[in-house]
Design goal:
Layout lengths: L13 H9 L1 E6 L4 E6 L2 E6 L2 E8 L4 H8 L2 E6 L5 H9 L7 H4 L4 E3 L5 E3 L4 E12 L8 H7 L7 E12 L2
Antiparallel strand pairs: 1-2, 1-5, 3-4, 4-9, 5-8, 6-7, 8-9
Length: 169
């Protein structure tokens, strides 16, 4: 008889840890400027027989303007040594400063000319497939709205095909 050990869903694969605990930077460009933001919410899997990533961005974030305008963006995962830079990028706005440089980071571009964070260990280059705004009437658990959306500033969800993955050892 095979016996199985019970583990938490978040412990099944390293990707849960990467998003939730290590965080990621979502980066996009308008051709002239590049912006990035820290995110700790997201998902990855298979949808429409494609490898996909799902990220969530609130409309008031400066990065939202870039991700709305552009077809592609990157998700950059950095090592723990960049925790302060990740925190910085999550608490400062690119509207007011060059937060990438001020965080001690730099931009590199993929073959498709999509910006990524040069210091990343893993970069996923993604192409938007579907976008949808989260809506109050679709939440089945009101406690989520009460906790995460007291001002009703719901995220926009982006479902993106992961076109390329770049790993730095």
């Amino acid at each position: 008889m095979i016996t199985f050990e019970h583990v938490a869903a978040k412990d099944v694969d390293a990707i849960f840890n990467r998003i939730d605990k290590q965080w990621m930077l979502i980066s996009a460009t308008d051709g002239e400027h590049t912006n990035t933001m820290t995110a700790s919410w997201g998902a990855m899997g298979i949808l429409w027989h494609k490898p996909v990533a799902i990220c969530f961005i609130r409309p008031q974030r400066y990065t939202y303007e870039f991700t709305e305008r552009e077809e592609r963006m990157t998700l950059s995962f950095l090592g723990e040594e960049y925790r302060k830079a990740l925190s910085y990028c999550g608490t400062h706005s690119g509207r007011d400063e060059d937060k990438i440089a001020n965080a001690g980071l730099s931009v590199a571009f993929t073959e498709s000319d999509t910006p990524a964070i040069a210091q990343a260990r893993l970069v996923l280059e993604c192409k938007k497939l579907y976008v949808s705004d989260l809506k109050a009437e679709n939440f089945l658990d009101q406690a989520i709205i009460d906790r995460w959306y007291p001002e009703k500033d719901f995220h926009r969800a982006y479902i993106m095909q992961i076109e390329k993955a770049y790993i730095k050892e």
